[in-house]
Write the structure tokens for this entry.
Amino acid sequence: MRIVIAGGSGFIGQKLTELLLAKGHSIVILTRKDRSATDSISYVKWLEQGANPEKELGDVDAVINLAGVSINNGRWNANHQKEIYESRMSATAELLRIMTALPKQPTVLINASAIGIYPASFDARYTEESTARATDFLAKTVSDWEENARKVEEHSVRVVTMRFGVVLGNTGGALPLMVLPYKLFVGGTVGSGKQWVSWVHVKDVARSILFAIEHSNISGAVNVTSPVPVRMRQFGQTIGTVLHRPHWFPVPSMIMRIVLGKKSTLVLEGQQVIPTVLMQEGFEFMFPSLHDALEDLLVINKMKDFIF
């Protein structure tokens, strides 16, 4: 297939590109920078004055939208929140304009989203059929993002909104910061420890995106999380076990709020989210177990770097 990726140079985008190339697909990455094409990847300028990507893309089978300012970088002050929100809305609007301007419509749009759309809860268990919605900044952002992406359904394009959980990887996402205290021998429970962490290995994120492209019966919301979420206390204990480090130094909620501000909700609050759609469609997770996922990211990959 010929697949267009917006946000292809990001944490998830890089891992996804590796997978798609390994499967023999042709990749076009939308970019604001001048970049030279390779044998397998083409780069097309967009979101710049005078850019007309629709004239360069040709026939496209699928479009993946991962574009937007990272929620992990910087404090969530008013300006940063505005950048996070507007970057997603403007990029999606432009992407939909490009898609509808193409001579031939792509068959599917895969649009990123997040499980932050569900309210934080110690007890609730959310699937794609859950109608409860949070009302905070992140929930509004992803809710509006999904709504805007679905507008292209009017042009007979299948839309899948993939609600990512806490994506674990050793080159980005939340894991490097979560692991750092343990490497310094001061790791411990963050906040109450009762909050849920619906995590997922970045390799399974990439694989689930390709799975959604290949399975035309999948549409609408898809939770992209491990089928085995854990509470924060267990998450920290598992890091300690994998790294052979103690889990003893608690981090009070108040400290996290002082250090991270509003962004502290990402670690102090959580949701128990189940990937029902993926499981019903037969998707097989490479890393359903947190221990195995962390061992792959923190131990096996480190050993490979040492050996080679």
